[in-house]
Amino acid sequence: MDLDGFDRKILALLQQDASLTNAALAERVALSPSQCSRRRIALEEAGFISGYRAEVEPARLGYVVEAFSRVTLAAHSESVVDDIAGFFDDLPEVRMAYTLTGDADYLLHVQVRSLDELASFVHRRLLPHPMVAQVRSDIVLQRVGRMKGVPV
Predict the structure, then answer these.
(1) What pLDDT digit, counting tens, does each position of 82-138 carry?
(2) How many whole angstroms from its chain centre is CA 91?
(3) DSSP for 80-141?
(4) Each residue of 127-149: pLDDT tens digit?
């Protein structure tokens, strides 16, 4: 699918506010609601839009400690990679997991309620896993911006 200016504007606006109604989106893009709806559906079907969600403020729910944990594995094989990915996915403290190049194998974005909870997460959940060799965590002191969308 080749994106034109209308498609790009739809994507940009939805990244800013996914709750826009089709009528509001059509007005801002300067298309009829039916044309806008067809384009939006096409963008979804083509995989440009993978979902819609509300951004919830973690601190309002008591999740005031944010950290990035670098995990190094003890061994590497296809089965280990599948196993560890499933393990990370099942941990509610992990907001996102990334594979890396360099010294560590994975980077985990972790959100917890306290430093004690972070310590417990590392020592009782991560380190006991048989394939985890090392964990190094950096605690976020302050966010300096908001998550941004993809440039369109």
Answers:
(1) 899 999 999 999 999 999 999 999 999 999 999 999 999 999 999 999 999 999 999
(2) 14
(3) HHHHHHHHHHT-TTEEEEEE-SSS-SEEEEEEESSHHHHHHIIIIIITTSTTEEEEEEEE--
(4) 999 999 999 999 999 999 887 88
Residue count of the chain: 152
Q: What does the DSSP 8-state code read for residue 147?
A: -
Specify the DSSP class assigned to residue 61.
Answer: G
Residue 143 identity = R
Rounding to the nearest 10 degrees, give the CA dihedral for residues 127, 93, 141, 72.
30
**8 A C-beta contact, residue 96 and residue 128:** no
Report d(CA 43, CA 109) in Å as an integer.
Answer: 29
Q: What is the DSSP code (8-state) at residue 145?
A: S
